[in-house]
């Protein structure tokens, strides 16, 4: 019988801060444009955490069945949790857990759909497809990074804004763009250590399709596009000037982008680079939310 620690392992609990920051950014964007609800925000957070757990657990189960996680060199940021391999939980229990979490997220999504209307349907459908089809389809079709950028980046930010009840505004779209680039890159950099295991397991990702140097250049381009998109949104007045504080974490890109441009043929990105990639993602979304909330509170940028 699996215990709570085993379920937390296949859920990859340390990575569940990402949905918190995404919901915060989306809700803050909606608040900036005049709509905010604590109950809606908390429900959106529960739904997104449940869906994130679902995609993580399905990935753990699939990578065990395909043998990928038996071949990876595990790091704190890539290579799976090792929970199934350690015998703490079996594949079947992991899949059941994932589907139950997906059901929780789906049920909340249906509630929001009935409350908001059909405008929420495209985000709900795309999000469901991204969760259920990521591991066994998108990650094997060469578009896993795009699916991750949408399903755990742009769509949650836009969805968290829409459930506030005032539609999808310019600020939410502006906050969703850097979220897309960052989650795209979160997956892409973590694919470098797993290159051979992914190849043997039948995956097709940018590292395997384009080769390490080209994939590394794409990583660097998406990294640079993140702060540039925030600056552009401020210039276009989609975001208040205080949102520029979300550019500050881009200093953390020195290590991962430096590795990508200088040493992508090395089998393993340095652990500090992998860590900086994660912290950059979380802190940028969080500071986006902070900038919007402070600007709203003090009437800055109207």
Task: Outline the structure in words.
The protein has helices at 4-10, 17-32, 38-66, 68-71, 91-116, 121-133, 144-166, 170-191, 195-200, 206-210, 212-235, 254-262, 271-297. α2 (17-32) runs antiparallel to α8, α3 packs parallel to α6 and α5 packs antiparallel against α6 (121-133). It has 302 residues and is mainly α. It is globular, with a radius of gyration of 19 Å. It has 13 helices and no strands.
Instruction: Give the SSE order as H and E letters.
Output: HHHHHHHHHHHHH
| Overall average pLDDT | 93
Number of domains: 1
In the predicted model, the low-confidence regions spanning at least 5 consecutive residues are none
Structural shape: globular
- DSSP helix count? 13
CATH fold call: Farnesyl Diphosphate Synthase
User: What is the CATH top level name?
Assistant: Mainly Alpha
Sum up the structure in keywords.
single chain; mainly alpha; Farnesyl Diphosphate Synthase; 13 helices; 70% helix; globular
List the helices and strands and how they pair.
Blueprint: H1 4-10, H2 17-32, H3 38-66, H4 68-71, H5 91-116, H6 121-133, H7 144-166, H8 170-191, H9 195-200, H10 206-210, H11 212-235, H12 254-262, H13 271-297
Q: Concise description?
A:
The protein is mainly α. It has helices spanning 4-10, 17-32, 38-66, 68-71, 91-116, 121-133, 144-166, 170-191, 195-200, 206-210, 212-235, 254-262, 271-297.
């Amino acid at each position: 019988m699996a215990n709570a620690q085993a379920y937390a392992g296949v859920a990859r609990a340390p990575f569940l801060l990402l949905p918190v920051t995404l919901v915060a950014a989306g809700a803050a964007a909606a608040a900036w444009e005049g709509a905010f609800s604590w109950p809606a925000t908390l429900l959106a957070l529960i739904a997104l955490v449940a869906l994130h757990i679902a995609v993580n657990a399905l990935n753990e189960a699939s990578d065990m069945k395909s043998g990928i996680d038996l071949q990876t060199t595990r790091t704190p940021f890539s290579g799976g949790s090792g929970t199934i391999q350690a015998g703490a939980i079996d594949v079947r229990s992991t899949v059941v857990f994932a589907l139950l979490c997906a059901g929780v997220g789906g049920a909340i999504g249906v509630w929001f759909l009935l409350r908001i209307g059909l405008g929420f349907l495209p985000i709900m459908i795309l999000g469901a497809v991204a969760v259920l089809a990521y591991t066994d389809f998108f990650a094997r079709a060469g578009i896993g990074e795009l699916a991750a950028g949408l399903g755990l980046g742009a769509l949650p930010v836009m969805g968290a804004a829409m459930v506030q009840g005032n539609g999808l505004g310019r600020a939410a779209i502006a906050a969703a763009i850097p979220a897309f680039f960052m989650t795209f890159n979160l997956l892409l950099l973590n694919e470098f250590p797993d290159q051979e295991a992914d190849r043997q397991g039948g995956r097709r990702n940018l590292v395997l399709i384009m080769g390490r140097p080209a994939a590394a250049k794409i990583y660097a381009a998406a990294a640079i596009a993140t702060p540039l998109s925030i600056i552009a949104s401020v210039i276009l007045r989609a975001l208040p000037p205080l949102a520029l504080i979300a550019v500050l974490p881009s200093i953390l890109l020195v290590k991962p982008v430096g590795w990508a441009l200088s040493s992508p043929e090395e089998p393993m990105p340095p652990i500090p680079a992998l860590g900086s990639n994660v912290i950059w993602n979380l802190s940028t979304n969080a500071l986006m939310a902070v900038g919007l909330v402070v600007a709203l509170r003090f009437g800055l940028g109207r």
